[in-house]
Amino acid sequence: MPFVLSYGDILVDPTNYKSMVSLADEVEAIVSVKQNEDVSKGGAVFVNEQMEVTDIQEKPKPGEPISPWYNAGIYAFRPSIFAWTAKLKPSPRGEYELTDAVRGLAKSGKRVKAYELSGEWADVRDPEILAQLNQL
Predict the structure, then answer these.
(1) What are the boundaries of each domain within the chain?
(2) What is the DSSP-derived secondary structure letter of residue 119?
(3) What is the pLDDT averaged over residues 114-135?
(4) Mean of all residue pLDDT scores within the chain
(5) Is 27 helix (H, G, I), strand (E, B) or coil?
(6) Region for 32 from its dihedrals, namely left if φ exceeds 0, alpha if ψ lies in -120 to 50, beta otherwise
(7) 43, 115 in Cβ contact below 8 A?
(8) On the CB side of 59, how many CA atoms lie within 13 Å of its CA?
(9) Helix (H) or strand (E) holding 116
(10) Concatenated DSSP letters for 41-92?
(11) What pLDDT, on a 0 to 100 scale, did the predictor assign at position 15?
(12) Could you point out which of 2, 37, 73, 131 has its C-alpha 20 to 30 Å from the C-alpha of 28?
């Protein structure tokens, strides 16, 4: 049975959740994506022609490969992700990166799809963005 995980600072059109869960029957995981975002502030999601995730890079540094697809912070997973999260080690930033578990799952040959979110989306990563949203 798939479940949804959403970063706490993500606001999105709620219809996306139902769409992601219904698609999760076909794959091991779904990563939500958006275009035209600064991937250095989040994550770059690399996909093939079928929108299957081939790699995911958390906060790429200048000079590292980038993708037009930004990790939008909402996932649909099957319980198989827990085997990958159990293997996580702290990143060079000292954090346990969920994206490392997603990368492992994708590179193991399991199908991980990218899903482009529809409607409104906001990453409320700092007070300035929240203030802007409150003006709407």
Answers:
(1) 3-134
(2) S
(3) 86
(4) 91
(5) coil
(6) beta
(7) no
(8) 7
(9) strand 112-116
(10) GSEEEEE-TT-BEEEEEESPPTTS---SEEEEEEEEE-TTHHHHHTT----T
(11) 94
(12) 37
Q: Closest by alpha carbon to 55, among 9, 7, 12, 102?
A: 102
Which has the higher per-residue pLDDT, 14 or 65?
14
Q: What are phi and psi of 106, to 5 degrees?
A: -65, -45
**Which CATH superfamily does the domain covering 3-134 fall into?**
Spore Coat Polysaccharide Biosynthesis Protein SpsA; Chain A (3.90.550.10)
Q: Which helix (H) or strand (E) holds 31?
A: strand 29-35
113 Cβ contact list (under 8 Å, min separation 6) = 23, 26, 27, 29, 30, 31, 50, 51, 52, 53
> What SS3 class is residue 35?
strand
Please report where in the chains the tokens 């409104």 appear, as a residue.
120
DSSP tag of 120: -
Q: pLDDT higher for 39 or 112?
A: 112
**Two tokens at 45?**
């999601």
Nearest-angstrom CA–CA distance, 3 and 39: 25
The β-bridge relationship of strands 53-58 and 43-47 is antiparallel
- Mean pLDDT across 75-99: 95
